[in-house]
Amino acid sequence: MGVVASAPAKVILFGEHFVVYGEPAIVLAIDKRAYAKAEKRDDKRLYLRSVNLNLAGYFENGTFKVEQDDAKEAKLKFEPVKLAAEKVLEIYGEKVGLNIEINSTVPVAAGLGSSAAVAAAVTAAVGALLNVEMSKEDVFRITYEAEKIVHGTPSGIDPAISTFGGILLFQMDTGFKPLDVRTDIPLVIGDTGVERPTHAQVAKVRGIRERYPRVVEPVMRAAREIVLRAMDALKENDLETLGELMNINHALLYGVGVSDESLEWLVNAARKAGALGAKLTGAGGGGCMIALAENERLEQVLEAIQRAGGRPFIARKTDEGVRIERT
User: Fold this and answer.
1) If you ran DSSP here, which 8-state letter would residue 26 be given?
2) Separation in Å, CA 106 to CA 177, 252, 311
3) Scanning 60, 150, 162, 201, which has its CA 20 to 30 A from the CA of 109?
4) What is the distance of C-alpha 55 from the center of its chain?
5) Annotated domain spans of the chain
């Protein structure tokens, strides 16, 4: 039968990009999950299959053989998964063959943390299959290592939220702090369908900051103030203030050059349809936007985003991070 584990995707509610320069960000786990099923094999192969990406292949004696789709593409996508599985096998102390099947409901390359959700789910599934004692901190560390393959020097936001769930306050120098938020946060997420490399967007902001430091520094301070005000609004269940702060945060991100036409269409459509606030989430330049709306307005905001060319879905906060679904 094997073991199935899952881990959630995320949205950045406030503070993306500015977090790189030491400012705080608020990150939210959402109820879209990546699933991983792990089974033992009789040989020493690590066989990997991604249902949603139509990829399959196996690693054996340091080489990769593709069975479905392009070999280069499959190897690239499977490297982080291989690392996660091998790190668990190191703790287990023995090399065994594994079948790992991944099925993710999270859009890929859209800024929702799909690669971290997959790595966390794989880590937990392989750990449970082999009866390896692993804390959530262990899962986080392994997921973070896997993310380095995907993103070079990741902030750690995605591995943390996929592992622990809920809402986290993140800052480079102090790390993660869970926020105790009881309120429901009804969101519509609109995927532009435009894939974009995160590093290019980060470089764009760095360039603007270097050229206009005295202009951008106050923008950074404003972003920090937004996060601090948003923490109060979350505690007080004040969705209206949260929406207004999202609109201001989006304007700052637009100002530093990381929005684009595909995002602006969706953000404006959501606001016109009655969203309390809307902004890009993640790196920008495509990817996803989020709209906060009262429950009775969610459907009309979703339809407006769809009409504007987006691929929308309703998402809610989830307090559960990585978990075992069945053994």
Assistant:
1) E
2) 25, 27, 12
3) 60
4) 21
5) 3-180, 187-315
224-273 pLDDT, tens per residue? 999 999 999 999 999 999 999 999 999 999 999 999 999 999 999 999 99
Q: Provide the whole-model pTM.
A: 0.91
How far apart are alpha carbons 231 and 236 in whole angstroms? 9
Find where tokens 């989020």 sit.
290
For 165, the token pair is 């769930």
Residue type, 57: G
Report the distance separating Cα 137 and Cα 28, nearest Å. 18
- Strand pairing of 46-50 and 97-104? parallel
CATH class for the domain made up of 3-180 = alpha beta
Q: Indicate the DSSP class of residue 106.
A: S
**C-alpha 274, offset from chain centre:** 26
- Fold agreement (3-180, 187-315): no
Q: For residues 11 and 24, give the distance between their C-alpha atoms in angstroms, rounded to a whole number.
A: 15
CB atoms within 10 A of CB 25: 23
Q: Summarize pLDDT for 6-37 with one digit per residue, the tens.
A: 999 999 999 999 998 999 999 999 999 999 99
What is the rounded distance in angstroms from the CA atom of residue 79 to the CA atom of residue 308? 36
Task: Determine whether 158 is an active site residue.
Answer: yes
Q: Which of the residues 69, 70, 138, 158 is marked catalytic? A: 158
- Determine if residue 249 is left, alpha or beta; phi over 0 gives left, psi from -120 to 50 gives alpha, anything else beta: alpha
Q: Which amino acid is present at 102? A: I
> d(Cα 279, Cα 16) in Å, to the nearest integer?
11
Q: What is the CATH number of domain 187-315?
A: 3.30.70.890
Q: Are 304 and 270 in contact (CB under 8 A)?
A: yes
**Residues in Cβ contact with 146 at an 8 Å cutoff, skipping those fewer than 6 apart:** 80, 81, 83, 84, 87, 115, 116, 119, 123, 159
CA R_g for the chain: 20
Q: Cα–Cα–Cα angle for 149, 136, 124, nearest 5°?
A: 65
| CB distance 284 to 198 below 8 Å | no
